[in-house]
Specification:
single chain, about 375 residues, alpha+beta, Pdz3 Domain, Thrombin, subunit H, six-stranded antiparallel beta barrel, six-stranded antiparallel β-barrel, 7 helices, 22 strands
Length: about 375
């Protein structure tokens, strides 16, 4: 089978249900606020390994803390300090998740999938108040949303630096699993910069701190009580307890700043649907590489279409950097602004080629 026939056959497979980017494709992934298998689509950051923050000094033992280990006392202190800023976020009659207050005048971070298409949600504060929350905006492609309640002097979470995370440092999750307000679980940062297959998110923090339905949108904290991530999804497989993932706080706050300043998130846009090249797929269709990203679809009148990018081509690089999977490409695009030019390295029936694409601004989601 020559490359032209192989590309055509591959395009047929993609058209019959292999498309990525047109739907989420979160097979096996659960959204923690519902516990249901997420509907099918797509969704980064550079490697986040620098210097681990110094461990917090254990609080001095008093009568109440006598007999507790330093690690237990640390978790207790983090829970006491951070829990007042954790809220519930609910769409009445649909489901609920969690959120975290980041400004005393009522600005809250949560997941885009927690608020869905709602313009107004119900926010439950730690002091028992139930307030109307207005959804200011967000970015479903990174699963972050910003909500605001009309209130002053609210308890505020301390934000950390997710770029400085080290694998193995403490991770503490607080949220409202199954409606049980401000539940605390603990573990470690299991990995950083994760791109779990089938979830459509990338650059995630992986943790073994238990995350359950209802934890979505709640904070993942370090041992000093600083928010390092926004809990977003659990990946489960038969016989496993599930792996929890969080959006790095640096990415989440970037979304929040754009929403608060302009009312929306401005993203560079290429206009293609993607599918990762996998060894089995490569063998089946005789592809020339076992890594890269297949162009599963190209939107009409998009930057990719105008540059001549076609379905069936394989992207193996961008601006001289290797692309092994879709997360690499999304990370690179997020580092660009609308109007920037990027060079894609493509493989196809005619061989290899570099194509320059002028990025546009992504349409509102």
């Amino acid at each position: 089978m020559d490359m032209t026939r192989k590309a055509a056959a591959l395009g047929l497979v993609l058209a019959l249900g292999g498309g990525i980017g047109c739907r989420d494709g979160r097979s096996g992934a659960e959204r923690p606020e519902t516990g249901q298998v997420a509907p099918g689509g797509e969704r980064a950051t550079a490697t986040r390994v620098v210097e681990a923050p110094a461990p917090a000094a254990a609080p001095a033992a008093n009568g109440r803390d006598a007999g507790r280990t330093p690690s237990e006392r640390t978790i207790i202190e983090v829970a006491r300090a951070a829990s007042p800023a954790v809220v519930s976020v609910a769409q009445p009659g649909i489901g609920s998740g969690s959120g975290i207050i980041i400004r005393a005048d009522g600005v809250i971070l949560t997941n885009a999938h927690v608020v869905g298409d709602a313009q107004v949600v119900e926010v439950g504060l730690a002091d028992g108040r139930r307030l109307e929350g207005r959804v200011l905006g967000g970015d479903p492609s990174v699963d972050v949303a910003v909500v605001r309640v009309e209130a002053k002097g609210l308890p505020v979470a301390v934000l950390g630096d997710s770029d400085r995370l080290e694998v193995g440092q403490a991770a503490i999750a607080i949220g409202n699993p199954l409606g049980l307000d401000r539940t605390v679980t603990s573990g470690v940062v299991s990995a950083v910069n994760r791109d779990p297959r089938g979830i459509g998110l990338d650059g995630l923090i992986q943790t073994d701190a238990a995350i359950s339905p209802g934890n979505s949108g709640g904070p993942l904290l370090d041992s000093r009580g600083r928010v390092i991530g926004i809990n977003t999804v659990v990946l489960r497989a038969p016989g496993s307890e599930g792996l929890g993932f969080a959006i790095p706080i640096d990415l989440a706050t970037d979304v929040a700043e754009q929403v608060l300043e302009t009312g929306r998130v401005h993203r560079a846009f290429l206009g293609i649907a993607l599918r990762d090249v996998e060894p089995q797929l490569a063998r089946q269709f005789g592809l020339p590489v076992e890594e890269g990203v297949i162009v599963a679809g190209v939107g009409r009148d998009t930057p990719a279409a105008r540059a001549g990018v076609q379905p069936g081509l394989i992207i193996t690089g961008i601006d001289g950097e290797k692309v092994t999977r879709s997360g690499d490409l999304r990370r690179a695009l997020r580092a660009h602004d609308p109007g920037d030019r990027v060079t894609l390295h493509l493989l196809g029936p005619s061989g290899e080629a570099d194509v320059e694409v002028r990025l546009a601004e992504a349409p509102p989601l």
